[in-house]
Each structure stands twice: as C-alpha cells, then as structure tokens.
Amino acid sequence: MDTIRNFFKEKDRFAQWVGIELLDASPGFARAKMEIRKHHLNGLNMVHGAAIFSLADLAFAAASNSHGNAAVAINVNISYLKAAFAGTLFAEATQVSRNPKLASYTVRITNEQDELLAVFQGMVYIKRDKIDFS
Fold this sequence. Notes:
- By secondary structure, this protein is α+β, with helices and mostly antiparallel strands.
- The chain has a single domain (2-130), classed as Thiol Ester Dehydrase, Chain A, CATH 3.10.129.10.
- Helices cover 25% and strands 46% of the residues.
- The chain is built from three helices and six strands, in the order ααββαββββ.
- The protein has helices at residues 2-11, 13-18, 49-65; strands spanning 20-26, 29-35, 69-80, 88-98, 102-110, 116-130.
- The longest helix is centred in the middle third of the chain and has 17 residues, at 49-65.
- The radius of gyration is 14 Å and the shape is globular.
- The mean pLDDT is 95.
C-alpha cells in the first residue's frame, strides 16, 4: 500500500536519518531495506546491532500499524545469528496473531544472499486511535 509507505517515508524521521527504506506494506506485513554505510559499523567493522534492530523495528512498526489503528510496541527481543559487514540488509515482518488489543509479529533480517542474520519478535498494544495515512 503506497499510502503506508509514503506515511513512513515522510513521518519516520529516525528511519530517514539511519537510511532505512520501506519497500512494501500491507495489512500485517512489511518489508524494508537498509544499505550498509560506514556509519552503520561498530568498532569491529561489523554492522552494529542497533542498526540491525532499527531496520527490524521499522518493518515491525509498518506491519503492526498497517491495519489503520495506532499500534505501539510493548515488548520486543532480537536474536543475532550471523554478522554482517557490507551490502544491503532486508527485514520482513509478518503478523503471527492479532486480537482487538494485542498483536504479535516476527521479523526476519537477511542479507542479499537471503542468509538469516537475525530474528526479531515483537508485540504491540493496539490503540483505538486511527492513523491518517494521507
């Protein structure tokens, strides 16, 4: 849905600053990417965990808010499985469950070779507030 993509592109200033691009979003799903730059690396010249977390978090936010109600994270965790050093990283968020108040998502973070680098699990509280995607 272009309206969701445009909303996050224009309104999520942190994602803009970090260099995260939302590629696709539909109810309960989102895909984002981040091209690795020098400022994404830690002291060991690996992609910083915070950069990977930020990518996953943007996909999580887009997927969980894609239904039109404001959804805010109440719990998240991430497991880092493999280091990344360069290239482009992708995050794909998929809804696992949803009820009127809570929803759960899994985000897979991969590289250009589709190797699994990290797995992010998140839960949101769904508010009554509607999001104006226009």
